[in-house]
Request: fold
Amino acid sequence: MGDLLTLTNLGNLGVLIFLQAVLGFDNLLYISIESQRAPEQDQAKVRRWGILIAIALRIILLFVMIQLIGALSKPFFEIHWTGVLEGSFNFSVIVFLFGGMFIMYTAVKEIAHLLSIEHLEKDLNADSRKSTWGVISLIVFMNLIFSFDSILSALAITDVFPVLAFAIILSGVAMLLLADGVTRFIQKNRMYEVLGLFVLLIVGVVLLGEGGHEGHLKFFGYAVEPMSKSTFYFSVAVLFVVQAIQTRYQKKLAMERLHEQGSTPGH
Reply:
């Protein structure tokens, strides 16, 4: 125990907690949006069980990756289609590419669904819900995809399993505490649901960039470059600022129209 309570490990734990908090934002956003697809009376349970199961599986994944990090980094296969597609594919590359495409598909599908419904109330009825355990399974699956990036980043800081596991548990507790509040905010401000889906779309692009860079992929002679985390969070911040300004501007226009209608003769 004394070997764990060193200044190095405590410093690494602080960095890991901050890293998990930053990288967990998109995960929490996905959980909050997806949980609304479950029956209304089960939504809180979906978030709670989805996060708890995901934490346990994330710790198991961490342990496995520490043991097999060398084997997982070896390429499974390579493609040398000169001028069209080149690159090597190991475990992490495949996870990033598959996860990125799946997240982008999910985001596009949900955006299309929101645009296709005639009435928001119709979208919230029982017929449009998914099963409780179906949503929990999807949340756990997506949590593992999101966590793969954060675990790789964490392993670059330290390989001390107890320190890494404690940081994961703390991040899970934070998600448990914040998930209901984030969901209530999205339910009261449904325009932010669309914004959240576009954030997930960007997350998918980030994962594709990570996978492409790690696999040294080239499409038609052009190398795939990753999007930096600072660029990603700056883009997300800009999206939220634009949404907030647009919302205020729409309210202002609505007030002006009401005022003009009230001052028009005959009204």
